[in-house]
Amino acid sequence: MYSFLNDYSEGAHPRVLAMMNEYNLEQNRGYGQDIHCERAKEYIKNLIHRDDVDIHFIPGGTQANMISISAFLRPHQCVISADTGHIYVHETGAIEATGHKVFPVASEDGKLKAKDVINVLDLHGNDEHMVQPKMVYISNSTELGTIYTKDELESLYNVCKENGLILFLDGARLGSALMSSKNDLSMEDLPNLCDAFYIGGTKNGALLGEALVIVKEELKEDFRYLIKQKGAMLAKGFIMGIQFEALFKDKLYFELAKHANQMSKKIADVLEVEGYELLQEACSNQLFLKLSNRILKEMDKEFLYVVNGKVDEEYTSIRLVTSWATTEESVNALVNFFKRAKSLL
Amino acid sequence: MYSFLNDYSEGAHPRVLAMMNEYNLEQNRGYGQDIHCERAKEYIKNLIHRDDVDIHFIPGGTQANMISISAFLRPHQCVISADTGHIYVHETGAIEATGHKVFPVASEDGKLKAKDVINVLDLHGNDEHMVQPKMVYISNSTELGTIYTKDELESLYNVCKENGLILFLDGARLGSALMSSKNDLSMEDLPNLCDAFYIGGTKNGALLGEALVIVKEELKEDFRYLIKQKGAMLAKGFIMGIQFEALFKDKLYFELAKHANQMSKKIADVLEVEGYELLQEACSNQLFLKLSNRILKEMDKEFLYVVNGKVDEEYTSIRLVTSWATTEESVNALVNFFKRAKSLL
Amino acid sequence: MYSFLNDYSEGAHPRVLAMMNEYNLEQNRGYGQDIHCERAKEYIKNLIHRDDVDIHFIPGGTQANMISISAFLRPHQCVISADTGHIYVHETGAIEATGHKVFPVASEDGKLKAKDVINVLDLHGNDEHMVQPKMVYISNSTELGTIYTKDELESLYNVCKENGLILFLDGARLGSALMSSKNDLSMEDLPNLCDAFYIGGTKNGALLGEALVIVKEELKEDFRYLIKQKGAMLAKGFIMGIQFEALFKDKLYFELAKHANQMSKKIADVLEVEGYELLQEACSNQLFLKLSNRILKEMDKEFLYVVNGKVDEEYTSIRLVTSWATTEESVNALVNFFKRAKSLL
Amino acid sequence: MYSFLNDYSEGAHPRVLAMMNEYNLEQNRGYGQDIHCERAKEYIKNLIHRDDVDIHFIPGGTQANMISISAFLRPHQCVISADTGHIYVHETGAIEATGHKVFPVASEDGKLKAKDVINVLDLHGNDEHMVQPKMVYISNSTELGTIYTKDELESLYNVCKENGLILFLDGARLGSALMSSKNDLSMEDLPNLCDAFYIGGTKNGALLGEALVIVKEELKEDFRYLIKQKGAMLAKGFIMGIQFEALFKDKLYFELAKHANQMSKKIADVLEVEGYELLQEACSNQLFLKLSNRILKEMDKEFLYVVNGKVDEEYTSIRLVTSWATTEESVNALVNFFKRAKSLL
To answer: What CATH class does B2-6+253-344 carry?
Structure first.
């Protein structure tokens, strides 16, 4: 079977694993205070052209979200999210478990717009009987595979700054967003366009690890206490340092994301040519499409994918994901299938 | 000025206050373990024809909601609410502050339907990446002044029971619901149609206090610990006991609610006759209507009310509330105003 | 039976209740934004000679503690308390339920000393694997009936200021502390010697209510949101305003506390003369003493009190409490009993 | 420098890493639902002779503690711990952050005794103004390097069962405890002597991972929801499965712990012979000793260790830790140092 289930089915990229092997018996300080974490932070700081940020390596995305949000907000404050946002839908209430409401905004494409934020602020006013919106959560690429343009991000950040809101960017799939052919954002833009963001390792070549970058000065204080309190301070934190060192030493991170996107684009191009219906614009390593159940029945014989939901009696919405580990061979097999299956559309 | 702002502008009904005066220097046990609380509980048990329920007096509605919900749920479970629900909108995130998501369902009339609950269950399935729906929160009368019919409540409770969900009824304005001319529910129906509910005192003649009735056996254990932990166990708990004794000794509670509804009905009848637009069915002591800004400008000279929001450039949505303390005189003044103002519609 | 159980067995002092009667049918704004709350705040501000503080009326002491502590601390910070402190022992984990550790310090007399705080700071250092001490909680009078001298409070506050800690004073029994014959603190000292404190009404003549005074500027922001979120914003907040108006309009508050102390002193004097063993210095309206079980057997026939614990096979530790409502008659009865019972010592 | 700082300075044991390399490009299901997790669970079930337990792999010890405790308790319940316990001292308030008090009991040797638990129960009674003790937390080996005998554990568990308490065993260093020459507990005893426990991987050869074993039926329900909510469900959960597979396939886990203990014993034997003062019995891979500052000054030239605290002006308490990675060479160097340094005692 060829798998298009997700971007975390394999272990680490071989070059990442090679570095873990290389340093395996070296003695390192615990809790992320080692030389590899330091080096990885330097690589990232150079990439974003900012030396004044704090960087922390966090094992997973849900942890990065819940630690940041609970660290940055006071108890009566909420975070605004698209109703497709990972924190609203797929973290088993992790944010609420830290005491904060996630205020959802309906979104067709997985993105929040500046206007959405203004509407939420208008709705809440300064009414002390309601939660106080204080943070905006976005993901790039989004849970629907779409990406933010520089313009969109600027508008959003301007609204946040004008209203004293914190803008937080979940970059679990940041590599894929930045390597999109439709992207006009660069790594060095990010610290100028949000208050904190993270660079996802788990879904782009690492075994685990997200590099959280805190830009805004007021958000930095005592952050390591919060990492520890939420159980995210690995004793062997250096295993995240080594992996990010491998990923950013020579831009492996971007190569991997680029490959994933190319594999996805190859599929998307055929889908478009052949007349299949994409439910979201094809930008990154996730494709959402509507397929007839007859096609899916055939597809199930060779391919793995995620079913998102029933569209109607005859059609189903599915997700296909590519990764650094997706082979040309599997993409060719899928592409050929879609060509053949066209007749069943 | 005549006030139609809310149903908690005055102190206690004179007969309630009289009883507080009567027992003022009597010595009572603390923390709600006194003879007045006992008597009040007996009156209520008789009314609902159930001796096997636990009753607790809680100072306020937000407390009754947050204590019950956090006592009844495990950490990964959420409560379903209409998106107009008090817990979703007007408790400054009190429920989330106890760690639980409030899952909102869009509602035009403030009510949840059986079908809504099924949809939420279908959406969540048994996906451990999502919160687990375990409780349904409704209010009667609702935040929009509407009420549940016996049929509606039965359908809802059936769905809950079939799916292992707890049904919780916020009765901050239960008196007004039960005394509605459109109501077909009785006090004794309630313990058969939900797992826990409360009988609101604050908005119907008491200085403070809600009588929480826990019907379902599994929800009763150690509940007083939770009351204490959330700061709701008054040292002088007997002041709530005395007030509920006064309210239920001879059905004063229902008289007061009936009066509030009659005052409201008088207004609603005129509004309908004169062609004003009611935004919700007029059932209880709250009326929601759409008025032109020209009318409101006149109305502001004599009357107090709550603005709910702008409908468009010319129209505004407002709320009028009556209570046990609303006088015929003030209602006549308002009714006359509406008659006069018709020309400005 | 004569009761020395506690200081909250009766309703309100008659002059307090009279004012509640007087204003009962007056219409007031909800949620503590009424004229009575305003007036009561003015009286208090005048008393403490400070116009720049924020004052909030909170229904109970546990609420005042949990709202303040959770509002003032970030998630990784803890509050230091004597191991006899109300928040450590008698609030069913209310503080921990808001996410914060209460760090206990062993105390013989219920008081925290400057040196205790330094020890806790030394123990924690800046170790991010431990909670960060950020607040000191004291009560005056304490849970053991003792009181702080001005010197002691100054030393404690100096240590707090030097180390960036917040000093919070639980004044559930502040009246009794300030009216103690051994007291050298005044109301106007308080805002200069701590960052926030409250003036307890429940145990000194009110039905319910504590007046929380926030002195430190940084602690004031958005405090009403927190009151609401924790369920402590009474719809009819004016009932607390009226009561504090009554208590502070003409110093009734201090008269009541003085009476309670006098009743207690009368008992303590006899106990000392007759050779009974007091377990704590007699300062305020609470007395802790060690009595033989033979004496208690006799005492049980006429008097109610709280047993604190077994000292050994023959002796028991008990608490006696007086209040504004304690009569000379009951004190005389008790004093006579102790004189008679001396032979059973 | 020779390091005796901790047991997590190196990466994984080479045989563990070899297996990670072997399976690196294999495609696996996410979130711990893969074949390696299954196999590792089977190995563990065979070892403990129990097929009816639930096993979950959790990245770290703080997470295992906080997820279990918050999953097993209701909001008003507390967990009892030695005052040296990891959850009380070194988790930055992680347990309190989930809402639960950790009730500390003074302990000289890091262990809790049956009598301690009874005392805590007596102290709390059924007083709803206090937290309700419901769980006992112990660690084996303890934070002071001591271990529980079978007798001690049986007594503790009996008290727990008689009083409806849950017994939870933190086994971050379980390997070292079970391989101690003074140990009389076996893996198969564990499920009979506690309700849940974990087998620590991080400190015994793995990069990360603790295998949590839930024995008691009532504690199993929906546990994966809690893992997800607290951010501990790794997308690539199979990396823990592979490591535990490597550790338990052929008892590597016990070999590694045995080595660590042997290295420690070699040091302890010399310390005893030469007359050094051990502060705790030498049982496992941690040694606590008192050294003069003159000796430490010399020791600092060659060896790394953790300072626990000042004993007095002349003496300091330190901790030495050995691990699977500790070499004979480094132990010989340390032993020789202690022989030489004797003159400075």
So the answer is: alpha beta
